[in-house]
Structure formats: structure tokens, C-alpha cells
Task: structure prediction
Amino acid sequence: MSSCCGPSRALDAVVPPGAAVPASRGGEPEGMIRVPGGRSFVGTDRPEIPQDGEGPERTVVLADFGLEATTITVERFAAFVAATGYVTEAERFGWTAVFFGDEEHLSAATAIGSRLPWWHSIDGANWRQPEGPGSSVDHRLDHPVTQVSWADARAFADWVGGRLPTEAEWEHAARGGAERRRFPWGEAEPDDQTIHANIWQGQFPRQNSLADGYERTAPARSFEPNPLGFYSMAGNVWEWTADPFKVRSLSRQARLRNAQALEHSEKVLKGGSFLCHISYCYRYRIAARMALSPDSAASNTGFRVAYDL
Result:
């Protein structure tokens, strides 16, 4: 499966032997915010991309929970790896997906018939070198860690005594509670001049004006936080959730999509990324969502950690 926003691994990819999840907790929550639960909702009755299962709005009842104010940074993930010896799935596969929007990469991919010519399978790309050999995270330790799979995210969450948030928890926190808002900051639509988040400005994928100041990821504490204090719940990196992907519809198309998602154990990601733009991937809205197989990783995929209280 593939999405304009993030590629899944090939369906016939051979999964390498798994790395053990650390058995003991060694990390600590950082910047955790207590989120009051109660009656809330997930989804929207104003879906922009209905085939993604954004609607209809559904009532949920949530317990109080904790959620970290930011996505997990490179620095914190590096501490986890140093303490546990954990090896990510991208490292064990030996390759993963990287975005390149320059003319050389786009033309080469288009020439061989790629449907998504901005995505490239790069040998040696992983969380330490997100764009492949020669790239480095040394200058972005405060940026979100990327190139992490669902299992990698869960392993870190286990280490700090947490878990991945559910889709409903993620939306509740992003909206600042049981409020109906399209974006974490409200209803105002971002554009190439009005900057609320790290999304694409310009003509995707060939021209990025960098109006927000970032070509790829931004530091995890960038832009104004939402009313509860959460940073970058729109744009920057897609965030893994605990939930399996499902489209709630009676249509034949939805039934087929759900069967496909179940077959490949696809999970829900939320929030969009630095590659999102209204012209092609309007998924930085709170109700928007994406599905990926859990072994997938890319240069725009990260996570944050939730906690039971």
C-alpha cells in the first residue's frame, strides 16, 4: 500500500528477525501533560477525504490520560538506543523511504514509472541518517526522530512506562478537549503566507519556498502550542497511534479497504507532516488520518507517547 503522504513497505518484503522490546523501564516521561477525559468524539461530519474514513463523527468516553507535549526527539531516542541496544526495523531491513523533491530524483523516478516519484527506497537510511548515508542527526537532536516503525515507537514507549495514544486520545488532545476545531490552533486555514505549522509552502513537490523556515523537520517545540500546551500536532511528522486502520462505512469500497488494511495490519497515523499541502495532501487537519503497515518507516514519520493515569 502507498499513500501520497507516506509509503508502506513492499507487500512481499521479508521481515528480519525482531529486536526484543526492553524488559525494564529506563526512561522517564518528559513534558507530560495531563488531559482530562470524559465525553468526547473522534472524526468529523465534514470530511474532506471521505475515503480515508474521516467521518462520521463518533462519540467516545475517555479516561484521563497523559500525553507528552512533543513528539519524541532524536536526542531521547538516541538515549533509549544507548541504554538498551535496540535496533530499529529500518536498520534491520537495510533500507527505507526518503523524500527527495529535486529535479534529478523526480525525473529518474518518473522515467521508471513511479506513481509517487518523490519517494525513494534508500539503502542505509535509518533514524541515525534519515536521508541515507552521508546524512546526520547531529544538528537536529531537538527535532522529532524519524524513520521509526510502529514497533520501534512501541518499544520506546514501553521503555518510558507509556504507550502509543489511541486515535480518539490523539484527537482529543489536539483539539484541546471536546472542542470542534479543524486545526490545533482553531479554524484559520494556513496558506503560504500564514504560518501555523511546518507544512509545505510552494508547489509540491518541485518548489518549496521554505516560508516556515524548514526544508524538512522542525524542532519538536516549534510554533505556538495548542490550548492544552501540545506542540506540532499538525505538520512536521506523522505520528503513530495504537489503533488499527478502519473505514467506518457500509460501502463496497470501504469493505474492500478494510479487508486490505486488516490483511496487512495497517495502523492509523495522525497529524500530517512537513510534506502536506492543501493542493495534494490535505491531511494536517485533526480529523485527517493515514494508514501504513506497521513495519513502514519514512523521513516524515515519528510518534509521541501517552500514559495511563
Q: What stands out?
A: Residues 252-263 form the longest helix (12 residues). Helices lie at 74-84, 89-93, 103-111, 150-159, 167-175, 252-263. The chain has a mean pLDDT of 91.
